[in-house]
Design goal:
This protein is α+β, with helices and mostly antiparallel strands. The protein folds into 3 domains: 52 residues, RNA-binding S4 domain (Structural Genomics Hypothetical 15.5 Kd Protein In mrcA-pckA Intergenic Region, Chain A), CATH 3.10.290; 86 residues, Pseudouridine synthase I, catalytic domain, N-terminal subdomain (Alpha-Beta Plaits, 2-Layer Sandwich); 81 residues, Alpha-L RNA-binding motif (Alpha-Beta Plaits), CATH 3.30.70. 20% of the residues lie in helices and 29% in strands. The strands form 4 sheets. Strands 7, 8, 9, 10, 13, 14, 15 and 16 form an 8-stranded mixed beta sheet that branches. It has a 4-stranded antiparallel beta sheet with strand order 3-2-5-6, with no helix packed on it. A two-stranded antiparallel ribbon has the order 1-4. A hairpin with a 2-residue loop joins strand 11 and strand 12. Helix 1 crosses helix 2. The longest helix has 9 residues.
């Protein structure tokens, strides 16, 4: 017997968190009864998502892709408005989904997989997985404002955790700055809102690293499979420091 959200995640239909959201929204049935978080299922139980029976005999082979996400692509498995999604960019028959989210106009490192266990590890706040962003902002950022970012600013009435901030460059002619931020939280539109909190507008935003992965070798829209060594390092995150 296993919890239904774990079964859904392990079969690659959604991340563990995504499966929990499906259950909370009443979209999961067990033997034609609405599922609840914590419900356990056996191999003989019939699970439906949005009225469709999930195939528990499908291959459990895990796949892992690193994508250099281009602008104006939605970070989801499917989009109700018919926009192109990050999953559309990858030639893979197995059902995969993105690990976390990048905004519609944000570019850079994105991991996609059907491994629910790893996804849960990477996005769970307690594991503090680092995400590094390079932001082009309007204005020449002041030292006092860099310190505000480092110490935390209020976003949606909650203070952000301390983070690392580096001024990479500035251009007086265009009145812009390039700022690198290393955070481990994953709130909605967090980086943009952090700059907004100190009165700077983000012109362009790129995630240049996620955990130990970067996409320097990939052009915009290109992807590759992770190596077994890279997958192992993701699973071992934090253990070397324990």
């Amino acid at each position: 017997m296993e919890r239904v959200q774990k079964v859904i995640a392990n079969l690659g239909y959604a991340s563990r968190r995504g499966a929990e959201e499906l259950i909370k929204n009443g979209k999961v049935l067990i033997n034609d009864e609405v599922a609840s978080l914590g419900d356990k299922v056996s191999s003989s139980d019939v699970i439906k998502i949005d009225g469709v029976i999930i195939d528990k005999t499908k291959s459990n082979d895990k796949v892992y892709y690193l994508l250099n996400k281009p602008r104006f692509v939605v970070t989801t498995s499917k989009d109700e408005l018919g926009r192109k999604t990050v999953v559309d960019l990858i030639d893979e028959d197995k059902r995969i989904y993105p690990v976390g989210r990048l905004d519609y106009d944000t570019t850079g490192v994105l991991l996609l997989t059907n491994d629910g266990e790893l996804t849960n590890k990477l996005i769970h706040p307690k594991n503090k997985v680092e995400k590094v962003y390079l932001a082009k902002i309007k204005g020449i950022i002041k030292g006092v404002d860099i310190n505000k970012l480092k110490n935390g600013v209020f976003v949606d009435n909650k203070k952000t955790s301390p983070c690392r901030v580096k001024l990479k460059s500035f251009d007086k002619k265009t009145n812009t700055s390039m700022v690198e931020l290393t955070i481990h939280e994953g709130r909605n539109h967090q980086v943009k809102k952090m700059f907004e909190a100190i009165n700077y507008d983000v012109i362009k935003l790129t995630r240049i690293r996620f955990a130990n992965l970067d996409c320097k070798s990939l052009k915009s829209g290109e992807y590759r499979k992770l190596t077994p060594k890279e997958v192992k390092r993701l699973y071992n995150l934090g253990e070397d420091d324990a």
